[in-house]
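# nightly structure sweep
# worker-07 picked up a monomer target from the shared queue
# config: single-sequence mode, recycle default, output format = structure tokens
# input follows
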Amino acid sequence: MRKSLKIMLASMLCAGVMTMGMSAEAAVQDKNVMQSAEKQGDRAIKVEKLKLVSEWDKTFPKSDKVDHRKVTFVNRYGITLAADMYVPRNATGKLPALAVSGPFGAVKEQSSGLYAQEMAERGFLTIAFDPSFTGESGGQPRFVASPDINTEDFSAAVDFLSTQDNVDPDRIGIIGICGFGGFAINAASQDTRIKATVASTMYDISRATANGYFDYEKDAETLKKERYANKEAANKQRTEDYKNGYYKNMGGVIDPLPEDAPWFVKDYYAYYKTERGYHARSLNSNGGWNMSSGLSFMNMPILAYSDEIKSAVMVLHGEKAHSRYMGEDAFKKLQGDNKELVIVPGASHIDLYDNKDKIPFDRLADFFDKNLK
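# output follows
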């Protein structure tokens, strides 16, 4: 009796008490009016008209094996995202699809676009997208990162791909590069539509922001003190920003490069600050992130539920990458026999951005072919 009452009350709340006493015909009419209002009103999915560059402005050559066009889609925060779509030339039928993003602070004209184009050459319909607040995507203020919104960006890409006529909605995977490797794993832990995930040369941005590099070399008390000091500095900057009326950026990759810079910083410089990988819209190539945008990462560990992922995951890292420990630790938490850790011999963190001799694209294709069935 009590269970039946609970079910009845839940039904009343879901349907709305205003339908009580109505005839069946009136209730249907009211429902239709409500649905019409939703479509036209503040719950409608609205696409912002973005200003998109029409010419090819990537950091890699255009392939003659794929067709390319610009597309847009909307995340559940109402932010319109810009993407490049790559489709295997002369492909027919419904294709397996991949959404690609990263590195953290890069744009789709850099590494993610290269991955997307290479995977399209191997038979996948792909999109490389600019995350919210960056590149050609929408969102204000600019140059902000968010553990929630950047994870949502992947799921929004899945929304878009799932509704394309030439995509099989049951065969969708994602690739996250650098910091977006962590977001990709987080997305896979909550979005059951994602059937396979690759985290390439990944960072756990929550961990790196909260603890800095190489946190395994520090004791818990030191990490706690440093984290508090960083929170103080970031919150002080928030006050300054609001007083000044704009958000200060922290700067991209350091330039000029100090002679005593760590070797991995020199690697970043060699990619982001030279003809090899520089792009005018890239945060890392230019002004960097909003100085206070890292605050939320300190309190929101993005890999908290990664052990619940049932779908396939590959963690791909370079043998010599300074970030390798983050990938290996992330892999240790994954559960199931459909998880892979792939270490590329001799590769650094940056090698897996654009070095086609190091990035095992064929192995990635085999992984997705196996798991997108």
